[in-house]
Amino acid sequence: MANNNPAKNILYQKLQVVIDEKMELQNPLIEILHQAQEIFGYLPAEVQQFIADQMRIPVGSVYGTVTFYNFFSMEPRGKHVINVCTGTACYVKGASKLIQMIEEELSLNMGETTKDGQFTLTSVRCVGACSLAPIFTIGEEIFGQIDSRNKLKTILDKFNRYA
Amino acid sequence: MSLEIKVGLASCGLAAGARDVYTAIENYLHKEKIAADLKKTACIGMCFAEPIVEISSEKFAPIIYGRITPEEVPELIEKFLTGTPNTAKAIIAKDCEAEENDTYNSQTRIVLRNCGKIDPVSIDDYLKVDGYKALEKSLKNMNRTEIIDEIKESGLRGRGGAGFPTGLKWQFAYNENNKKKYIICNADEGDPGAFMDRSVLEGDPHSIIEGMIIGAYAIGADEGYIYCRAEYPMAIKHLRIAIEAAEEKNLLGENIHGTEFNFELHIKEGAGAFVCGEETALMASIEGERGMPRIRPPFPAQSGLWGKPTNINNVETFANIAWIILNGAASYAKYGTEKSKGTKVFALAGMIRNSGLIEVPMGMPIRDVIYKVGGGMKTERPFKAVQMGGPSGGCIPAKLLDTTIDYDSITKTGAIMGSGGMVVMDTSTCMVDIARFFLNFTQNESCGKCTFCRVGTKRMLEILTKITEGKGEMEDLEKLETLSKNIIKGSLCGLGQTAPNPVLTTLKYFRDEYVAHIVDKKCVAGVCKPLIKYEVIEDKCIGCTACARKCPTKAISGKVKEIHLIDQDACIKCGICFDVCKFDAISKS
Description:
The complex is a heterodimer. By secondary structure, chain A is α+β, with helices and mostly antiparallel strands. Chain A contains seven helices and four strands.
């Protein structure tokens, strides 16, 4: 895509490589979107247009898929995405209280990103570690039994420090 | 003396801090120059006792320790080496008196046979426990119909929830005359509160792959997919490693075991949509489309993935296959009831002591599962209900605790077996609120194809929210029932057809609670915020100001050493004052 921003061009080049590689598969749209989100951090309209052009499919199909699945985001997200589990076991064991604690600690609301771009707070249906409810994940790391503000602070501080 | 040490590093272990324990062991062994075989394993099912460490040597039978901290590691190893193992922290061992020992030994583990015992990413570990022997037996000594008959005779029914006989399903796909067929493993474990699939995927991925290869051979498929939800990164990682290892050993690929049978297996990562657990939606998602269900017939066995005959089974179902082939249908069918054979894995969570995974024969009463295997309630608060089947299931009350666990008996209660998630609730859970929780879930996850599911669940959610806010009317209950009936009738797939179940079962067994919310404006469990009131108990308040300082809306006023007061209009009922007060001077009513 014509773009004067060199940093961005590199990202598009990366995406181009992914698309070329995946086009051998039968309709690889979801795989490409996963990778594109990893490259760009989110899926803005111009990235979707780029994918549609390269795959020679209507941009509507791309948009339809992006908006259907919870994993894809059209909004920029923070460096660390906090996913609070809101499955039944976590709900029964105080997931809403955990969300409230995080919201207060980071001064944001569910779905938002901190001003410094460090954290985004979202929820996930269930991460399947129900015995250690309430739970949240950051990236692929998983934290269980977060029932006190101190435990929460220690974890958030750790991520802030390595920011 | 050579030691063997295993640390459980599945998601549940990691969430409890097992990584630090593993590092502590590694460092200690290195520092003290102790020769030991340190292994990573997965989840043994005792999630409540994580982090879990198993130590054994030629001299001592394995001892499994629970709730280990990194600081305790040196003493644990040292005592084991000096011949006086620490038994205080042992949870499973010979002659061990720990309660957990009974929990573990009262189970019959078929699906979970290797979980927590082997290193899941080592194919050699799997081969050592008779791994891929069932595949060899199938390819060399059995013909395709014999395999299908064996599965039919075992009585195995689909463990994903609906309980359709697996052998019959395979027969349908076998009967189709088509050169191209697919086999799919549904690893999109969506029911919140169920995590047996995650545990097997993380802890014993080869057992699923072996089950799939046998299934593919039986029905005549040469290509397969494992559709795994993206929320399980470790499961996906372990599957990838396992598939590669199986390919290297020619257990996947062309001319498997020197026969003419070829089979290629792919992983497809989901993208977070509950409805993709429904088989036709799952196939749409594999095809790269929006995961929306398709009209049946034609059934997947006739026209499934890319229009080809397709057989789709759940993770737990596939994990049973190799065991059945090796041990025979009769050995499997000796467990369970007349119509529900074998064992079933349950995920115990919520307000239960021994939360984790257990595997027991079908036909055990729910009471035994909760009180014997599960160790009873976690707190002193009494049992109120057990939620089975996730958003498609229902809440089973105390009076039905003697119901036996089999597909038909559970369905009679209005709940469903589902994938085996059991979330135990005590009196701190509000049944109207839990019904609202599930409706919120299904309403969010409805794909929008069928009007009744799309709009109906939204209307039901609005009514339930109104009731939890104390604005409900008695007619609302009838409206809920009418909407439920229509949604069940007017929806194409399982998501819509079962979405009203949580409401219907709570209305059936806990109608009083709905009425209390509507008529008395009371939430007995103290959950529904608009119906709760926090007040300062004047006799107990010493004026420490802790609550006033923490109150996010500054709704609490009062000077030091004076009785405080909560401004009810400004109070958002967050409960912080109630939690921080050390003098029990805040009442919640």
